[in-house]
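dumping this here before i forget
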Amino acid sequence: MNNIAKVHCLFEQSGTFKREFRKMGIPAEDYDILDDFGETDRKVDLFDEIDRAYDGRESLFDGIGKEDLVMAFFPCTRFETQIMLSFRSERHGMGTRTAEWKLENAMTLHQELHDMYMRICKLFMVCLRGGWRMVVENPRSQPHYLTMYFPIRPKVIDPDRRVNGDYYKKATQYWFVNCKPESNVIFEALIPVDQGTIKHAERLGIARNRKVSRSMMHWQYARRFIAMYIIDRETCEKNVGIEKDGDADAGTGYLWDSMLHE
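structure:
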């Protein structure tokens, strides 16, 4: 992407992507309702802002220009595989509950899923109407609600984030709205990272509990994703080692593109 004036990182409070954009000379800010890491630049209820923008009311999205980029790490807890087990009351401790409790719980979860689906649809529509660029991240677990029922296909799918220096394998998908992913091939040695499973995420010591840890990304992965898919070739050449002709020998240790493109 050419001439990114500013990056607005929605639902990010860790500062991981924000800091990597800033290292490359691109202004960036984190937006979230929480500030557990002391990195949130604008503490705001993003769901309310999405509703306001969709309804045509004043919102933070009014200040986003067409030269800006929004990178949204949209909450996934109601879209992932585990929610299906919760609907069926098959998670630990639910089997002994009464039928009435199970039905009430299922109705509550279904309403929450509905609200989340409506919000992500509204976010995409606000972006399309505003004409600014956006990248949206979400897991690619199977089954995943957005994989099955969302009408817009992701442009990039990463089946194993560990290949590019992250903590977890955790398949992830990325939507590009009003923009297309770049295809830079870069040279940079991978820094060894302690890798773990989602089940034992707290052992990595990167956050206060497993729920938070499983949502974290390593700064190295953020840097490489930005270099490969977001910044243009000129910016990439200034900040990261890059293969200029886009074709490198697999034996040289370059960052190869293991992701799938749709």
